[in-house]
Design brief:
The structure is a single chain. This protein is mainly α. It has one domain. The chain is built from seven helices and no strands. Helix 3 crosses helix 6.
Length: 146
């Protein structure tokens, strides 16, 4: 019964991640990015919104969504003001670790919420790539272990 519960929760979380990232990342890429965020100790309940706002911030700077999400995860997780500065988020130096992470998350969410969502055309273009990758993985023709 516990395994069934875990599967339900995992499926709901994956659906939430897909929704917040506009479905523009393949499932494997979405799981890789989520795993990175979790390894860097980002709060699990904030990850979908952080990814969504990372995509918006990256779009404003011409970054691929994958790179933008990675920058937000690494910037916050490693407490790197330089990485976050590259994606348009400035954090003052000298904050305590806990304050720094909370401030960074708040700034990403606030600044991202001020930006528009990707256009339908942009979403569709990225979805084509994601669906192709998902199909290849399901057929066993593409698997990259890292």
């Amino acid at each position: 019964m516990f395994e069934t519960f875990q599967k339900i929760v995992a499926n709901r979380y994956l659906t939430e991640l897909k929704t917040h990232t506009y479905g523009i990342l393949s499932e494997i890429e979405l799981l890789k990015q989520t795993n990175l965020a979790l390894e860097l100790e980002l709060p699990i309940l904030k990850i979908p919104l952080l990814f969504q706002n990372a995509i918006k911030l990256g779009r404003a700077l011409g970054l691929h969504p994958k790179k933008a999400i990675e920058a937000i995860s690494k910037g916050i997780g490693r407490k790197s003001w330089m990485i976050l500065d590259n994606i348009g988020i400035t954090i003052k130096r000298g904050l305590k670790n806990e304050d720094w992470v909370q401030t960074a998350i708040q700034k990403v969410l606030q600044k991202g919420s001020e930006l528009p969502d990707p256009t339908n055309e942009e979403i569709e273009n990225f979805k084509i790539d994601a669906e192709t990758e998902n199909g290849l993985i399901r057929q066993g023709k593409k698997f990259r272990a890292r």
